[in-house]
Amino acid sequence: MSETATQRTVDMGNGMAGMPLGGGAAGGNAGAAVGESVLTVRDLKVHFRVPRGAYPWSSKATLRAVDGVSFEVRRGETVGLVGESGCGKSTLARAIIGLTPVTAGSVRWRDTETVSDGRRPASAMERLRKDVQMVFQDPLASLDPRMTIEQIVTEPLKVQRPGLGRDETRARVVTMLERVGLGAHHLSRYAHEFSGGQCQRIGIARALVGEPQLVICDEPVSALDVSIQAQIVNLLRDLQRELQLSLLFVAHDLAVVKAISQRVLVMYLGRVMELGTRHEVYGSPQHPYTRALLSAVPRPDPATERTRTHAVLTGEMPSPLNLPSGCAFRTRCPEAIGACAEEVPQSISRGTGDRRVACIRVGAEPVASTVHAVSR
After folding, report:
1. What's the CA dihedral at 275, 278, 283, 285 to 10 degrees?
2. Kind of pairing, strands 78-82 and 104-109?
């Protein structure tokens, strides 16, 4: 794919500015058949013990980075994971692939439990690493500066396909580099010689060269310019169609997530607030936090932006070391009532399919003060 393939614009909906995207159906891997679940996460928890004070010997507190998250990824689909900074998105992604210890819960890859009650069987992790790979947020920092591009992309094959001969290994590396828009003439160069977008293409080639079935993308475009973001999103969509991949796409940019995802999971302070298809979450958000996120995205029409209504949040995000009782969002929620402080809300099934919302106020009449017109 060339660096200039950014011609088509997808309507982002809800007044969002469009993102330029290349060929293929708008909004995720629409052309691929979505099959059975390949990744199943159940009640996953990642807690850290951290000092309360400035000294290492200070008393410890529990930071609940991920607190009871459940979802699944199906064959051939993209699940978008969104939320503001600090909500636990990247920690969840790293816990699934084995880069961060798990406190409790389970992760199942196809028919194998890779995490059970917080423990990781070594044999299960070996299979997981062959089938699941990761693309990291910082494209340059994720590449070894002392290795050539050929060495970087070859390294996974040495671990996952040790029986390959030298010629076949090199052929696979060259083929994958060409698929991501680079070529054989880049093999002897080093990471610092490339732009951010090119480094991310190398990172994608490294993740895909071993033929994984699921790729976890941890904010893969957040460090790139907007025009380059569109190129990388195009590339991931094209590769997903060609290779029949499943993607778990972590991002805080709602427009990017809508452009590539089929289902969307919204997180806040380590918990899932809402889960549904792209059309459900963006077209008819049910959770007050989801509505606030979408409301915060500016619209391209100045006249509409000056008069439209906004979901208003007050206060700051609570410390993850001192979460409020009950619903973690209640201290900022414009629709909170007394019952919200009594217990953690369970995910409620809404409509058909697997749409779920963690809010006891779902279906209730909104509080009158939750929205108002904003004049700028």
Report:
1. 10
2. unpaired
Considering the domain architecture, whether residues 244 and 360 belong to the same structural domain is answered as no
In a domain, 1, yes or no: no
Q: Do the Cβ atoms of 148 and 189 come closer than 8 Å? A: yes
Helix, strand, coil shares of the chain, percent, nearest 5, are 30, 25, 45
Directed axis angle between helix 196-208 and helix 149-160, to 10°?
20
Strands 37-51 and 104-109: antiparallel
123: domain CATH number is: 3.40.50.300
Q: Residue 336: inside a domain, yes or no? A: yes
Query: What is the number of domains present in the chain?
Result: 2
> Please, are residues 78 and 28 in contact by the beta-carbon 8 Å criterion?
yes
Mind listing the pLDDT tens digit for each residue in 15-42? 444 444 444 444 554 444 567 899 999 9
Full domain range(s) for residue 322: 290-373
Residue 350's pLDDT is: 80
On whether residue 285 sits in a domain, the answer given is: no
Would you call 217 exposed, middle or buried from its count of C-beta atoms within 10 A (0-12, 13-18, 19+)? buried
pTM of this prediction?
0.85
Q: What average pLDDT does range 40-52 have in this prediction?
A: 92
Six token digits for residue 167 = 């010629």
In a domain, 231, yes or no: yes
If asked whether residues 195 and 67 sit together in one domain, one would say yes
| Total Cβ atoms within 10 A of residue 375 | 5
Same structural domain, 213 and 297: no
The reported pLDDT for the residue numbered 351 is: 72
* Residue among 36, 247, 39 at smallest CA distance from 127: 39
For range 169-180, the mean pLDDT: 95
